[in-house]
Design goal:
Shape: globular
Number of strands: 0
Structural class: mainly alpha
Helix content: over 70%
Strand content: under 5%
Number of domains: 1
Order of helices and strands: HHHHHHHHHHHHHH
Distance between the termini: 11 Å
Radius of gyration: 18 Å
Number of helices: 14
Largest sheet: none
């Protein structure tokens, strides 16, 4: 029961951080660095409680993990500006569930029993169907995207979906690295956070064209520090998902975390007032329900 409870903490942290970040506002650089910074003090405190057992394998795993997360998050934050949270997150969640489940089964020896495999495959079919529904174009969303500077209707929608898909693929690397390299979750926390902060800072410099200070949306501007509220949610969720993947296995641990799809989708529609036509809303809600139900079935494979 404790393992499941630990696994559910990231669902709330990951689900709320996108909504909080959008409410705070700022550039992608602000949001990215604001998310990454709070991971460092938490990791430092944890390393004092339990010293890190450093090794070359740990550093390599942390580098892959931290850099993949930073690139993934930057792409996802960019997609929020085009598609909105309530549409981007369900698609990202579905692709991540498919990817992490495949890695868990093919490389980590999970779902060994026939009943587990059958249940897991049924779940993946539901998740895939949910992703297709969530990615369906909504005429009102396309019209809204077309009205924003630099976005032109269908091309904006395609660009947003491409960012979500690439982001989800990188998130699979972030989620699975500790399991593939068989490194301890608490050992990984500090080096991972160092790579997260460093790579987020580098991405921020590039996306802001080198503006460190001088405006609220510069890399070290006011909006970055305000976005650390969302970063605090991420830091807690990140620590718990590493522990959960170790306690529950990758397929189950990451699935529990991806129940954030419910929190983020509802948050996007209610807190951020993201507009959807009746048809578009039906697509998103039905797809979200299929992804969530598929996630529950994947969780049951642990039983």
């Amino acid at each position: 029961m404790l393992a499941i409870l630990v696994g559910l903490v990231p669902a709330f942290g990951f689900g709320l951080m996108g909504c909080v970040s959008q409410l705070v506002g700022g550039s992608v650089a602000n949001k990215q660095l604001g998310l990454a910074l709070p991971t460092l003090p938490l990791a430092l405190v944890m390393s004092l409680v339990r010293p890190v057992a450093w090794s070359s394998g740990l550093v390599v795993a942390a580098a892959i993990d931290g850099i993949a997360w930073s690139a993934s998050e930057a792409l996802l934050l960019y997609s929020f500006g085009i598609l909105g949270v309530s549409r981007s997150v369900p698609v990202s969640t579905g692709v991540q569930l498919l990817g992490t489940s495949a890695i868990g089964v093919l490389f980590l020896g999970e779902w060994r029993g026939q009943s587990q495999l059958a249940l897991g495959l049924l779940a993946l079919v539901l998740v895939a169907a949910g992703v297709v529904l969530c990615s369906r174009e909504d005429a009102s969303a396309i019209e809204s995207a077309a009205s924003r500077p630099g976005h032109e209707g269908w091309s904006a929608n395609a660009r947003g979906m491409a960012c979500v898909m690439l982001s989800a693929g990188l998130s699979v690397a972030y989620a699975s690295t500790s399991s593939i390299f068989a490194v301890d979750a608490l050992d990984l926390l500090l080096p991972q956070s160092l790579f997260m902060v460093a790579s987020s800072f580098a991405i921020g410099l590039v996306s802001s064209k080198g503006r460190l200070v001088g405006s609220p949306e510069a890399v070290l501007g006011r909006k970055t520090w305000e976005n650390m509220l969302a970063g605090a949610l991420f830091a807690i969720a990140n620590a718990c998902v590493l522990l959960s993947n170790q306690m529950n296995g990758l397929a189950v641990g990451w699935t529990l975390a991806q129940m954030n799809v419910i929190v983020s989708t509802v948050g996007g529609l209610v807190l951020l007032h993201e507009h959807r036509s009746a048809r578009g809303l039906a697509f998103v809600v039905t797809g979200m329900a299929l992804v969530a139900f598929g996630g529950v079935l994947i969780g049951l494979t642990k039983a």
